[in-house]
Amino acid sequence: MSTTSQKTILFLHGYTQNASIFRAKSSALRKKLMKLGYNCVYLNAPYVLTPADLPTSSDGDSSLSKFGSVASDAEHHITYRGWWIKPNKGNDFVEIDKSFDAVKNYINKGEILPDDEEIKKENIQIKKEAENEQKKDKEATEGKKSEEVVGIIGFSQGGAFANLIAHNFNTLFNTNTSLKFVILYSSFKLDTLKRAGNEKYMSYYPLGQDDLDQSSTRYLHVLGELDTVVDESRSLAIYETTKSRSDLLKHPGGHFVPNSKVYVDQVCNWIQSVTTDEVEKSKNGTNDNGVKDETNKFSQKDTKDDIDDLLAMMDGFGKA
Question: Which positions fall inside the Serine hydrolase domain (predicted)?
Fold first, then answer.
């Protein structure tokens, strides 16, 4: 069998999730991407969260249900992870070195940090589904000798980390090409001001319009209009950092990755549009402006006909 390039998309889960949880929560998107020929790889964040790191409600009880990481009756059997630990429940003075290593180890060695939680009855099904999908992925890509990471899909804190590494991805991880696209769900920008103690990460972002203009990476920012975990102003702030190379898609929901067909199709159509070469675009009569206009039009036009379907599927959406 001839050698071909295997196009891989890295999935980075949210704070208090892990690879298995995010895999289950983004199943509809993953299955559609696999049909389009992409290899979907879910990485585990390296920082294991302790009870003190977990979000709490005003009465002191765990608020993981708000983050939607897992069903409440399974909380004690899951290893919760983060791309960085939140000192004092915030995002100041964070340490991310191990997260860079986690991505680097996959790209260079194909290594993924394992889910080390004790599997109980509550999440056995998630594990089985993940193993079956991994088997299908392997069978589907058999004979493909080379791998190219073409995109990253990140959720919440995973999206914030994806945005941090996207602009200089090929330099950071010694790849031959830059990322083609990054999709950020309910994400935010790490505060790199000196007062936040994260100024060492400032250079990871585009240093100005000229720097951004030299990039070939495209960004799609997806945010929920009812998100109470990452409010719209924070998501729009990260959008502004790459605005000239970004598209924006809103959905009438909260802090989750929408799995309804209308939004999965919209995201996959966007991926197809930004990864299609100019010749094919010309044949299809599409261009970057047309794609962006359609995305914005979709987010602004009346979506009433789709809301019932969206709300009916909310229990299956990925949060956190």
Answer: 5-267
